Amino acid sequence: MKKMVSLLIAGVLVLALNHTVEAKGNTENSGSVLSVGATPVPHAELLNLIKSDLAEKGITLKVEEFTDYVQPNVAVLSGDLDANFFQHVPYLETNAEWSAKLVSAFGVHVEPFGLYSAKYKNVNDLPNGATIAIPNDPSNGGRALLLLQSKGLITLKAGVGLTATPRDVTGNPKNFRFRELEAAQLPRSLQDVDAATINGNYALEAHLNPVKDSLIIEGADSPYVNIVVVQKGKEKDPRIIALKNALLSQKVKDYINSHYDGGVVAIF
């Protein structure tokens, strides 16, 4: 009888131990998953490139693609994503909640911003009264106007900064008209306007080469570095550190240099 009781107790202990080990294993496995939201080109492409590198570190990288600039930040705020990779600091700072709760973990590259046209081959050919489409979010709209000003096409109010709007245009020799559209819609607007300023990722998705196809383009020294964003306090998460090491690698730099023809410029 005592032997039977001892066996029963031993069995219970083994079951309890197995349950504990299984629970611990599930916790460890769940902690090894890293979910990152990204726009398709080049961000998701770069993330997919390093999946195997992170797998070697025991981290399963899950990439969720977005075609807009709002939902990736909403998803990180809610905890549905661990990080996102699509934006620059000026865009992050356009929303008070984002800038209060989210932070740049590290920067990766610059996508030079350009002016494109389906109707004209030279910026000097833009006619008087031409319609130019620009992004409708504050940071990228301001970026578009600053690009036009840097090439002498318009003049902005002194000190207006990165969030300039068409209302801040004080000099407009060719009487350009500005049409503000969602950034993702700009490539599709080219047939309806005389020219459009397009973010590098959306230009690449539309098979536009920023260096060869743009009428004017930012220099590679653009301050609009594309960053990986996480909730504040999670910058030192081991999975984010591993992601940083993988993205800022020679493998990724070589891929950028060989695939994007200057449309993406690594900063590392």
SSE arrangement:
Elements: H1 2-31, E1 33-38, H2 40-49, H3 51-55, E2 60-65, H4 71-78, E3 83-88, H5 89-92, H6 96-101, E4 102-110, E5 114-116, E6 131-135, H7 138-150, E7 155-156, E8 169-171, E9 177-181, E10 195-198, H8 200-205, H9 210-213, E11 216-217, E12 225-231, H10 238-247, H11 250-259, E13 265-266
Parallel strand pairs: 1-2, 1-3, 6-9, 6-10
Antiparallel strand pairs: 3-12, 4-12, 4-13, 5-10, 5-11, 7-8
Protein described:
The chain is an alpha/beta fold. It folds into two domains: 32-111 and 223-266, D-Maltodextrin-Binding Protein, domain 2 (3-Layer(aba) Sandwich), CATH 3.40.190.10; 114-217, Periplasmic binding protein-like II (D-Maltodextrin-Binding Protein, domain 2, 3-Layer(aba) Sandwich). The protein contains eleven helices and 13 strands. It has helices spanning 2-31, 40-49, 51-55, 71-78, 89-92, 96-101, 138-150, 200-205, 210-213, 238-247, 250-259, and strands spanning 33-38, 60-65, 83-88, 102-110, 114-116, 131-135, 155-156, 169-171, 177-181, 195-198, 216-217, 225-231, 265-266. Strands 2-1-3-12-4-13 form a six-stranded mixed beta sheet, sandwiched between helices. It has a five-stranded mixed beta sheet with strand order 9-6-10-5-11. The model is unreliable at 1-30 (pLDDT under 50).
